[in-house]
Amino acid sequence: xxxxxxxxxxxxxxxxxxxxxxxxxxxxxxxxxxxxxxxxxxxxxxxxxxxxxxxxxxxxxxxxxxxxxxxxxxxxxxxxxxxxxxxxxxxxxxxxxxxxxxxxxxxxxxxxxxxxxxxxxxxxxxxxxxxxxxxxxxxxxxxxxxxxxxxxxxxxxxxxxxxxxxxxxxxxxxxxxxxxxxxxxxxxxxxxxxxxxxxxxxxxxxxxxxxxxxxxxxxxxxxxxxxxxxxxxxxxxxxxxxxxxxxxxxxxxxxxxxxxxxxxxxxxxxxxxxxxxxxxxxxxxxxxxxxxxxxxxxxxxxxxxxxxxxxxxxxxxxxxxxxxxxxxxxxxxxxxxxxxxxxxxxxxxxxxxxxxxxxxxxxxxxxxxxxxxxxxxxxxxxxxxxxxxxxxxxxxxxxxxxxxxxxxxxxxxxxxxxxxxxxxxxxxxxxxxxxxxxxxxxxxxxxxxxxxxxxxxxxxxxxxxxxxxxxxxxxxxxxxxxxxxxxxxxxxxxxxxxxxxxxxxxxxxxxxxxxxxxxxxxxxxxxxxxxxxxxxxxxxxxxxxxxxxxxxxxxxxxxxxxxxxxxxxxxxxxxxxxxxxxxxxxxxxxxxxxxxxxxxxxxxxxxxxxxxxxxxxxxxxxxxxxxxxxxxxxxxxxxxxxxxxxxxxxxxxxxxxxxxxxxxxxxxxxxxxxxxxxxxxxxxxxxxxxxxxxxxxxxxxxxxxxxxxxxxxxxxxxxxxxxxxxxxxxxxxxxxxxxxxxxxxxxxxxxxxxxxxxxxxxxxxxxxxxxxxxxxxxxxxxxxxxxxxxxxxxxxxxxxxxxxxxxxxxxxxxxxxxxxxxxxxxxxxxxxxxxxxxxxxxxxxxxxxxxxxxxxxxxxxxxxxxxxxxxxxxxxxxxxxxxxxxxxxxxxxxxxxxxxxxxxxxxxxxxxxxxxxxxxxxxxxxxxxxxxxxxxxxxxxxxxxxxxxxxxxxxxxxxxxxxxxxxxxxxxxxxxxxxxxxxxxxxxxxxxxxxxxxxxx
Length: 1001
Prior knowledge:
Elements: E1 14-21, E2 31-32, E3 38-44, H1 54-64, E4 100-108, E5 120-127, E6 133-139, H2 149-162, E7 172-173, H3 174-182, E8 188-191, H4 214-225, H5 227-332, H6 336-383, H7 392-432, H8 438-446, E9 451-453, H9 454-457, H10 465-472, E10 479-481, H11 486-492, E11 501-502, H12 505-515, E12 517-519, E13 522-525, E14 528-531, H13 541-668, H14 671-678, H15 682-690, H16 701-719, H17 728-738, H18 744-830, E15 836-840, E16 857-862, E17 869-871, H19 878-896, E18 902-906, H20 915-932, E19 934-939, H21 942-948, E20 954-959, E21 969-975, H22 980-990
Parallel strand pairs: 3-19, 3-20, 8-18, 10-11, 18-19
Antiparallel strand pairs: 1-2, 1-4, 4-5, 5-6, 6-7, 9-10, 12-13, 13-14, 15-16, 16-17, 20-21
């Protein structure tokens, strides 16, 4: 059965319900859908709206309506991700993952009061295995009904099995879904931000419109209007064009490669033909060399005889010259007197010169010592100015006295510092109250008994101090306690013998006064007298602290005075030390001046002796120079004669060597062998050379050898390239000729003929093979060029097809964008705006076939009545930006329709909108949907729910309140205002619990 037999099965019907079996965690309860309004899908997961399955629900809805973003033509492999996964649900131990599931949609006439007669139930079976999607349908209501989720799942498999396959013995699959159910009509456009069905398409409602680039806006509009499929088709044609271009390029490349190989073969054939022509040239040049050798050999033998006669005459003349030189050397002889005179003059000059040099060295040493001693004396005298007339002994005594005074000052300062530390410690003790009766007070505090020192508890007025202070002095370690603590205090102080405890200080003081006798500043009682007259009060803590602080002030004053005395002693000690150093420097400076005077006297004596020695030195040098000149002249004459004799002897040696060489050469020149190689007489060789062209008349044998060798090398280069097979004889001869070392040129000359013959034999054998190769290459060239031409034609046809598709697509895009712009303008004017539109320009297609042909679209609108259109990316009102985005989405959806009901599915509806704009934007969707017949389904996040719930026509809330639940609970579904009854009755009808007529919307 053909697809055309089942085309546009759904027709004008609209979806009025959906039921999902085995899809994600969604429950199997049917969900009624109210067409022509805004349907909001909210969620309640374990923590927030996430995890309730909103994305899976709306993704399944888009699959049911044939949304091409599922890549239906490729089998909709991603649809398997909709199925329940135990691993993702964290239910591996309790449940197994679903291997298949169902998306069941109920369609009916929109205007029908009772959907039963027009109802059509469409079943999509989703599987993890291929095919991933199968399609069946039945007239009427055909949905699984049961009391529990498990019952509905089991019944779903039974009902699917009862539905007949519609394509003969097979089912329609994902590739057939859209055309079979909806024909060529687009029924769904969507923006999904979900991992269930990934899409790179920009969502015009998921972020502020002015943050999107024009190319992203075009991608969104293309997805909404279905242009993205046509753009993908254009890209496929561009890919085909590119593939054909690569084929043509590959064919051209293969032809070039073959031509290169053929060129190598044909070049080798041509080189061998050229080598055959050169072989005769090489042979002729080698024969000319033989003729030159014969002619030159005959001429050389004649020249050798002439040279031997000349050498004999020259050798006789050289022998006579040697005899003359020997007589002159005998006459010159050896002069002993000249050598003795030179020796005596040299010894005399050396002796006088040594004395003179010693005097000069001593003068330099004395001069340097005087300079050094003068500098030292100046520095010492500068230091000695600080003596102030004191001798070393006086300055040392003053230094010792200053050191003694400083030592005493250091000791006095240390004593004063110690006294200050002790006074400060006394202040701390007095302030803490531990200066009197400290052990007793500590023991009583440990026992928890309140107590104080007697001297702190009693305060004595100034007039009574003279009487009472002597009485209290013996009891300054006593403590005062409460009368009720006497026994406890006595027990606590049992470990401190001698402690005195007073419970009534006033009575105690009165008894002391009664028993005492006052005599001036002394108090006597019982034979004991205490002398009074304390400078400061001894009772009261404040008095003791004041007294201790006064001691600190006195000690600080004493310390300051001691510090000042120590500083003065330090200054006196430094002055005394400087005077001692200066006195010692004065003594040393006088010693230096004494040495300076002695050196100056010695320097005068040395200068006098040096002046006296000068005439003797001049005379000795003059005598030495004369003796040396006389001896040098005699030696030069003898050396000149000896040099002449050596040159004559060398000349005779050269003549003998030349004679030996000529005699050897006369033996080497083998004229008979040369004549044999030439193959004729000397006269014939000379005639051959005479017949040569003028430019070759002056060639010698080496010239002809090099000429023949160059031709042979050219022949070898033409015949054998790198990698070519070489005959064994040619290889052996070549190795022998190329072996380094002495005699290489001779080996090359000796093997030239054999190597040339071997190469000529090789060329003769190759002649037939070369002819066959030429014919084969000509046939292959024709075939290769025919294949190249066919590939070029295929690319040309693919390029024309791609250009045609591109031109058609450009017209379609322009028309579709124009339609969207018109709808955008209509919606803007109808819902509170001043007019809007789209600006776009046809771009050049990308050169890269892997890239889409992406256009750029710029939304524009008027900001006030009568104003010009302003681009969307200009800074403006945020609420207005959100409103235009809603209108643009609806305009694109409306422009994509073909007169059939349209479903617009949006994920995370209004996510980017501000709080003050959300209710208005959602209400605008509801109004446009109701007025234009668009069913808008939008998924909500938590923060959007309260804004959308009052503005939508139907509210669906998916629920799963615990992570321990594998599946959702039954969804909560409400219709608002006049739609409430219709939603309720649709829900009852879908579940099979209502059989009456439905209310009209």
